[in-house]
UniProtKB/TrEMBL annotation, chain B:
Matches recorded under PROSITE patterns: ABC_TRANSPORTER_1, ABC_TRANSPORTER_2, MOP
InterPro entries registered for this protein in UniProt: AAA+_ATPase, ABC_SmlMolc_Importer, ABC_transporter-like_ATP-bd, ABC_transporter-like_CS, Mo/tungstate-bd_C_term_dom, Mop_domain, P-loop_NTPase, Transp-assoc_OB_typ1
Taxonomic classification: Bacteria, Bacillati, Actinomycetota, Actinomycetes, Geodermatophilales
Limits of the ABC transporter domain: 1-234
SMART domains according to UniProt: AAA
Name of the protein described by the UniProt record: Molybdenum ABC transporter ATP-binding protein ModC
GO BP field: molybdate ion transport
Molecular function terms, GO-annotated: ATP binding; ATP hydrolysis activity
Keywords, ordered alphabetically: ATP-binding, Molybdenum, Nucleotide-binding, Transport
Chain ranges of the Mop domain: 283-347
Superkingdom of origin: Bacteria
């Protein structure tokens, strides 16, 4: 990110032409295989979808409820992740906190932890007998497990690292000299963060939020463990899909398709709305 | 308005130590090679870097002192960087009014000031443009407007022209000179280009290896360089020696005849165009004749700059025609002569 | 892995296979066959692959080691999973010798496909029990407590076997349960009791036994109305039919029955 070239528009157009000129075979073949690998299972779902009964399956009473709950919880989990994760990413990328390496490793723990274990871990902290949960229960009569709040917490636990890592990468790639400029223009660190740093890394934050939302939407293990499964309060789509798979595989496919369609539509819409301009992030 | 700076700061292996004052309306150039510590000094002035020791004060307001540090955003300053560094997410007008906004200036007033400054730097009508739509010269003008819009006490220019192409640099330099003339505060210009320093500064401070090696007016520095670096920058061959009447016995061996009486440690400076080259030892009696070997030749417009090695290392400018007629090639043995009256001599 | 063994394809083909044919419950006595049992050991070689319901993990691993001990040339491999997943894999041609299901319906999936070499036999039974944390904080005494709103309660989801059984017993007892969560499998329900996060969960007696001191089991009379029968059979495609027979005999033997009883199962009643 240095000074823009004399005519950056022309330079950019030139760049686009170059990339279109042809993909080298060593890249093209794995790329095509990669796409096939990702798309074929989806195709499989479509092929096996019992189209004649789709309407009936969708009209089943629990479906809309589970879908609404999924979207609500994934969105709340993303907002919570943004609220906690962006400052955390800043600390990891910018501050000179000691133990930063350890901190970064800890942040990625939920990525490697089997989600079910994550759910158990949440019990140990926020459950009725948990470190904080028992105090919440005694002092305020608040119990978190088996509530919609628990779903949001479980999804946040699993999905937030995606946001943190994405935002931290964007912060590291961002030119810190812009922050120097802001300081010389009278902006304190907080103002600089809001008016300069955050807008500069907005594409990274957007991409991280989308990843986070997608991960939260598909979350199963931690949710079913920590929040349980009850229609209307904690049964999200992935849980409904899993249970349908036990005795109604066709319904499971339809539910999966609904989840896929809704998430794809949301992502495409978002990309056009506010990630479109920065282009490369999604 | 006076900026007073006494700065000591360690950057890696480089110990930077410098002291200078800049008066109101004065432009001080920090001239020196890359890595000499110029930018470190200006970062300290800006408050982006805390000095290890020293004191920075403006009109009695202390910015840095032992145990005392005013952060960058609380200093009354404007800064222009090598790359314009316009905030890419803001329009040009919003860039220019950024400093006003952080200082709590109202929206109306901000817009008016921004428009006024854009007009002053020749960017009328570009307020709504994005930084990416501007040329390099336009961007640097906008960056200058952004720095000056807050009417700072101190203006810091860190290599403001070096990212521009030669033609743009010429015009932006001329404009910058005009704006600096109108600016009532103290200006510190960091540059490695002597032309910038000569054209823009009232005083030049030469920094090498973290230390000030020479300070003076541009004319003084230009005519009487005190280090090889400055001499090379201003296109002079600098010869250190000891004055002995109308001769200077050089530290590196050899004697240079000069026109005036000197004594003690002196510099003898020779302009390249006053050096003449011959293939054979010239007849007559020029008092300064030295054998030399051509080590390098670079075309400079109509002349060729020849670097000479020998007892007395010199740089000679000869016309391209003469260069061709003499049939000079690197490694050629030549005779170099300089008239005694063409040698400037001054105390070390 | 062959393409057609992709899990999704599996599921679909299984459902397609659930066509006609009536139930063929495994009733008749295993006693006659068990009598011919001690086949002299030492004779069995190769690899024996047993597909068994996850609840049998501890007992069968123990029995497998015993069989290996008697037959040094034999290696016993287990694939423990949910019975429906196992049935799916078997009908898709997974190379299994023995299938031990946690219920009749998944065994039916296999017999409908004609993959049993002899009629399946019920080798053990499991009944529901109420699992509570050791100090029984909710003071749960019977099924009726599942209607107490102030308690945190876990019941299996109706879609999974333990949930279906739970629905039956609640129906018989005339209790409308108010669970906080419908668990995806019985282990998950048990885990929540072990963690003390629920006051009670409806699980199988074998699960209570496997949890040791971490949970207490409370029996209730209605459990007799929803007894879960575990059938086992040797498969037609068995790569190692002799070893498969020997394993089934071991399971049906007194030794096997004792091991099952120790693990919280009980002998088949019929």
């Amino acid at each position: 990110m240095t000074a823009p070239p004399p005519d950056s528009r022309r330079a950019r157009a030139g760049g686009r032409r170059r990339t279109g000129a042809g993909v080298p075979a060593p890249l093209l073949v794995p790329a095509v295989l990669g796409v096939a690998f990702l798309v074929l299972p989806l195709l499989g779902l479509l092929v096996r979808t019992p189209w004649s009964s789709v309407g009936e399956q969708l009209a089943a009473p629990g479906v809309g409820q589970a879908l609404r709950l999924s979207l609500l919880c994934a969105t709340l989990a993303t907002l919570l992740s943004l609220f906690l994760g962006v400052p955390l990413a800043w600390v990891l990328a910018r501050s000179s906190v000691r133990w930063r390496g350890v901190l970064r490793a800890l942040v990625t723990v939920p990525l490697v932890l089997p989600p079910v274990v994550g759910g158990v871990a949440l019990f140990l902290v926020l459950g009725r007998k948990g470190l904080i949960g028992s105090w919440l229960d005694e002092a305020f009569g608040i119990t978190i497990p088996f509530t919609t709040t628990a779903v949001v917490i479980a999804e946040t636990f699993v999905a937030m690292p995606f946001l943190v890592i994405s935002v931290e990468g964007a912060l590291r790639a961002a030119d810190t000299r812009f922050e120097d400029v802001a300081a010389t223009l009278g902006a304190g660190r907080w103002t600089t963060f809001r008016r300069v740093t955050l807008p500069l890394v907005a594409p990274g934050v957007g991409a991280g939020a989308v990843l986070c939302w997608a991960r939260a939407l598909g979350e199963f293990g931690a949710t079913i463990t920590f929040a349980g499964n009850y229609p209307g309060t904690t049964q999200t789509m992935p849980l409904a899909v899993y249970l349908a798979l036990q005795n109604e595989p066709e319904a499971a496919i339809v539910l999966s398709l609904v989840l896929l369609a809704v998430s794809l539509a949301t992502l495409l819409l978002l990309r056009d709305r506010w990630l479109g301009r920065s282009g490369t992030t999604l | 308005m006076t900026l007073q700076a006494r700065i000591q700061v360690q950057r890696g292996t480089l110990a930077v130590s410098a002291a200078f004052d800049v008066g109101g309306g004065e432009v001080l150039a920090l001239l020196g090679p890359n890595g000499a510590g110029k930018s470190t000094l200006v970062r300290v002035l800006a408050g982006l870097l805390r000095p290890d020791e020293g004191r920075v004060a403006v009109d009695g307001a202390v910015w840095d002192a032992p145990g005392w540090h005013v952060p960058a955003h609380e200093r009354s300053l404007g800064m222009v960087f090598q790359d314009a560094l316009l905030f890419p997410h803001l329009s040009i007008a919003d860039n220019v009014s950024f400093g006003l906004r952080t200082r709590g200036v109202g929206r109306q007033a901000r817009h008016a000031t921004a428009a006024e400054w854009l007009a002053r730097v020749g960017l009328e009508g570009l307020g709504h443009a994005r930084p990416a739509e501007l040329s390099g010269g336009q961007a640097q003008r906008a960056a200058l407007a952004r720095a000056l819009a807050v009417e700072p006490a101190v203006l810091l220019l860190d290599e403001p022209l070096s990212a521009l192409d030669a033609r743009t640099r010429l015009t932006v330099r001329a404009e910058l000179r005009r704006h600096l003339g109108d600016f009532p505060g103290s200006t510190v210009l960091v540059t490695h280009d002597p032309v910038d320093a000569m054209a823009l500064a009232d005083r030049v401070v030469v920094v090498e290896d973290g230390r000030i090696v020479q300070a003076g007016t541009p004319d003084e520095v230009n005519r009487r360089p005190r280090t090889d670096y400055v001499a090379r920058l201003v296109g002079l061959s600098l010869l250190a020696g000891t004055g002995e009447g109308r001769a200077v016995r050089l530290d590196g061996g050899g004697v240079v005849a000069v026109a005036e009486e000197t004594s003690g440690p002196v510099f003898a400076a020779v302009r390249p165009e006053s050096v003449a080259l011959y293939l054979a030892r010239p007849e007559g009696s020029p008092r300064n004749v030295w054998p030399a070997r051509l080590t390098g030749a670079t075309p400079h417009g109509a002349t060729v700059r020849c670097e000479l090695a020998g007892e007395v290392p010199l740089v000679a400018d000869v016309t391209a025609t003469a260069f061709a007629e003499l049939g000079l090639v690197p490694g050629a043995e030549v005779w170099a002569t300089v008239k005694a009256a063409e040698v400037a001599v001054y105390a070390r | 892995m062959r393409l057609r063994t992709l899990p999704l394809a599996l599921v679909l083909l299984v459902t397609a296979a659930c066509g006609g044919e009536a139930d063929a419950p495994g009733a008749p006595a295993g006693a006659a066959e068990a009598a011919t049992d001690p086949s002299g050991g030492a004779g069995l070689t190769g690899t024996l692959t047993v597909f068994a319901a996850a609840s049998l993990t501890d007992v069968f691993e123990d029995l497998g080691e015993r069989l290996e001990g008697e037959n040094p040339g034999l290696a016993v491999q287990f694939n423990f999973a949910g019975s429906s997943a196992l049935a799916t894999q078997i009908t898709q041609g997974a190379p299994a010798d023995v299938f031990a299901s946690a219920n009749q319906s998944q065994m039916t999936v296999v017999t409908d496909a004609g993959l049993e070499s002899a009629d399946p036999e019920v080798f053990t039974e499991n009944v529901l029990e109420i699992a509570v944390p050791p100090d029984n904080p909710g003071e749960v005494t019977g099924l009726a407590d599942f209607a107490r709103e102030e308690l945190a309660l876990a019941v299996c989801a109706p879609a999974v076997p333990c949930g279906a059984a739970a629905e039956d017993v609640f129906g018989i007892a005339g209790v409308t349960p108010l669970p906080d969560t419908l668990e995806e499998d019985v282990r998950a329900a048990l885990t929540k009791v072990e963690l003390g996060e629920v006051d009670a969960a409806l699980v199988y007696a074998s699960d209570v036994a496997s949890a040791g001191d971490a949970v207490e089991g409370i029996g209730f009379p209605e459990a007799e109305e929803a007894v879960n029968e575990y059938p086992v059979c040797v498969l037609t495609e068995a790569p190692n039919p002799e070893a498969a027979e020997a394993f089934v005999e071991l399971v049906l033997s007194d030794e096997g029955q004792q091991a099952l009883e120790d693990a919280g199962f009980r002998a088949p009643s019929a």
